[in-house]
Amino acid sequence: MKSKITTIVAIFCLLSFYINGQGWNIVSNEGQSYSALHFPTENDGWIVGEEGLILHTSDNGETWSAQNSNVDNFLHAVWFSDALNGWAVGHGGIILHTSNGGADWVQQASTESGSITSVFFSDNLHGWITGVNGILSTSDGGYHWGGGSGVSIETFQSVFFTNNQLGWAVGSGGMILHTEDGGDVWEKQVSFVINPLNDLFFIDQNHGWVVGSNGTILHSNNGGENWVSQNSGTAESLASVYFISALKGWAVGTNGAVLHTMNGGVNWESANLDMDNNLKCVYFANEDQGWIVGHAGTLLQFTPAATATHENVPSTIQTTLSPNPAKGWLNVSLELENRTSVAISFFDAHGKSVGMDRLETELPNGEHHFDFDTSQLLTGVYYLKIQTESSMKTERFLVVK
């Protein structure tokens, strides 16, 4: 970033105000355009944008200050694997890397000459970038980048991985690609759309969402084997999507479009913000801390106290697990006071998903029973998380052989 940019010190939040009581308040709405942001921790976050702009906060967004990128390129995306190691990418094939939280940004060798549109790292070594010439991957922190097979020379807008092996990428012409080997081989998935796809998000290896032009929203509950269209209720081009859980998610796009769902996308509602700036990225550091960035210096912060409560949702979840210990099968009984969506997730003792998740988009009040096959699980302790539109409960159970 040149000297005229390094003189910028952004101290926001002093004059912020609420927008229509929808839970989002304006932190900034003037200045250079922002394109992306990322929070690797609840306190540390970065924003990138035009003319090599990089902003950093270490106090949960109370203050933001400029970091010196030493470039003038428009930066399209940023990703940090932890509070120290991060990458920013952008126009002209630029790849920047920091290993000290942005105190120093250095260029990494790039084989790209066009724009790099997104970057994603699953740890400090394994990363992926997308752009006008396809998808590249690295296994050494970005010092060397290479392409995998099955990738056509098309513009890809975004890439997302749930671990070092399982990933998806989306782009022009409704293109969705999937890899199970870290990007060595990519295979097409059928989207049934031809609209450009701009972004995607997976909460685990099964449940994911894709957004694109003309209000396109796609959802899969089986890792992309099947993609189903969801009704967004808008014709705006959606640029970014983020899900806090299997039920709660946000999407943003052109002309100030901000959409919210409380049931996994079965219903999307507009936040009806009184603004028309194009919004480029939405990100949540946790359920109560969210951010949106966009053109003309737009920065919005989520404030949960300002959101309206959801109507007709259960105040408690009554559950019974049997048998416990489970041997081959586990029956989960739920008692719901009111109609709601329900997400059921399973984790091992280390917090890793074991791939038995289930999403019920609309259950009536009353008692419900679900059977889960535990025969493939090793003997040990496991946890079951049940989440409705307003409540969450965790249960512990044992698996024996």
Structure description:
This protein has 2 domains: 3-306, 7 Propeller (Methylamine Dehydrogenase, Chain H), CATH 2.130.10.10; 318-399, Immunoglobulin-like. Strand 24 and strand 25 form a beta hairpin. The chain has one helix spanning 3-6; strands at 17-18, 24-29, 34-38, 45-49, 54-57, 65-67, 75-80, 86-90, 95-98, 106-107, 116-121, 127-131, 134-138, 146-147, 156-161, 167-171, 176-179, 187-189, 197-202, 208-212, 217-220, 228-230, 238-243, 249-253, 258-261, 269-270, 279-286, 289-294, 298-302, 318-322, 329-336, 340-348, 358-363, 366-373, 380-387, 392-399. 1% of the residues lie in helices and 46% in strands. The protein contains 1 helix and 36 strands. It has a 5-stranded antiparallel beta sheet, with no helix packed on it. The chain has a 4-stranded antiparallel beta sheet with strand order 3-4-5-6, with no helix packed on it. Strands 7-8-9-10 form a 4-stranded antiparallel beta sheet, with no helix packed on it. The protein has 401 residues and is mainly beta.
Q: How would you summarize the topology of this molecule?
A:
Blueprint: H1 3-6, E1 17-18, E2 24-29, E3 34-38, E4 45-49, E5 54-57, E6 65-67, E7 75-80, E8 86-90, E9 95-98, E10 106-107, E11 116-121, E12 127-131, E13 134-138, E14 146-147, E15 156-161, E16 167-171, E17 176-179, E18 187-189, E19 197-202, E20 208-212, E21 217-220, E22 228-230, E23 238-243, E24 249-253, E25 258-261, E26 269-270, E27 279-286, E28 289-294, E29 298-302, E30 318-322, E31 329-336, E32 340-348, E33 358-363, E34 366-373, E35 380-387, E36 392-399
Antiparallel strand pairs: 1-2, 2-29, 3-4, 4-5, 5-6, 7-8, 8-9, 9-10, 11-12, 12-13, 13-14, 15-16, 16-17, 17-18, 19-20, 20-21, 21-22, 23-24, 24-25, 25-26, 27-28, 28-29, 30-31, 31-34, 32-33, 32-35, 35-36
